[in-house]
Amino acid sequence: MVVGAFPIAKLLYLGVRQLSKPVANRIKAGARRSEFFKNYICLPPAQAYHWIEMRTKMRIMGFRGSTIKPLNEDAAAELGAELLGEAIIFVIGGGCMVLEYSRQAANSRRKEEELAQSITSLQTQLGELALTTETLDAQIREVNRLLLSLPAAPSSK
Q: Which branch of life, at top level?
């Protein structure tokens, strides 16, 4: 019974993705507690996201030129923390995809190299067989020439 290779890399990637959610939640909680993190990491992307979202909604509804009020600090911090958490999960997922792609590319490259090596080996064997065939053909011609040059043996009855 042949047992296939255990896909340890895929299991590892799945584990990393599952661990990324609690890590993202802890980072979000830390972002809510830290003033520096809140003011410089969470608030600017949250306000930008809010501005873009509201501007898009206003344009879809047909309102032009209306001013958009910024979010209050607590709502912006919460939205920024959520955006940060989603970005972390997205980056980890993207990293897993890149690693899987590179692993698959390495496997494909290895298989192509093995195939090229096999083809080269077969070509070498074919060349050797052609040389052997030519040698045997020359020997057969030599034997035929010698047979034809022998005097005919008298038949005895």
A: Eukaryota
Alpha helices per DSSP H over the chain: 8-33, 35-37, 43-61, 73-149
Residue 53 and residue 76 in contact, taking contact as beta carbons nearer than 8 Å: no
Nearest to 85 by CA among 42, 18, 27: 27
Position 144 in a domain: no
How many whole angstroms separate alpha carbon 137 and alpha carbon 124? 20
Q: Residue 121: which pLDDT band, with cuts at 50, 70 and 90?
A: very high
Question: Residue 24 domain-assigned?
Answer: yes
Q: Residue 139: what residue type?
A: Q
The values of phi and psi at residue 27, to 5°, are -65, -40
Domain-embedded: residue 117? yes
Structure token pair of residue 40: 């410089």
Q: Per the confidence metrics, is the pTM higher than 0.85? A: no
Q: Which domain holds residue 24?
A: 13-135
